[in-house]
Amino acid sequence: VPPADEIQSIEMIWSDLPALKVERKDKDWEMMTPLITKADTIEMNKLLGGWDQVRVVDFIDSPVPALRQALTEIGKGTTEYLKVRFATKANVVKEVVILANNNKLYAKFSADSFAELDKHQVDSLKRSPKDLQDRTMFTFVSADVTELLVDDRSYHKVDKRWVEGPANKRADYVQGMLV
Question: Which residues lie below 8 Å from residue 91, measured CB to CB, with a gap of 6+?
Fold first, then answer.
């Protein structure tokens, strides 16, 4: 998996979810499929960090013939569980195909080289479009806010300091609410 800061896009095709593609747009992320919308940056950072943490349970460099056949012929007890494509800023595409067989997950590196992956870790990376959609209700520049009403309490700025109500009681904590 490429380093998270080099990833320009990620596409995940789970066997039981619609294809999901998200692209980096400057510092933000935008979902491209199955719908076009802003993606939540925090959730994307968690997702990319999660891919970086997936660990191999066992490397299988010379599988026994039955296992090699099972992992190379889809449909004989083996299913494609997930296909994930990472594209970097340098336009390098890394595709990882994860296969399921006997309730275990395998990544194939070559005809004779596989790795068993931690199924729980891989499953924890399953995301739907709803999971990654930006949840921001609205945006604003906190320095531009001069008045605020929260739970029937009014706050305003006096000499660049936040105060509460007509008594102008200091309310320095308001700045923390706006960040």
Answer: 8
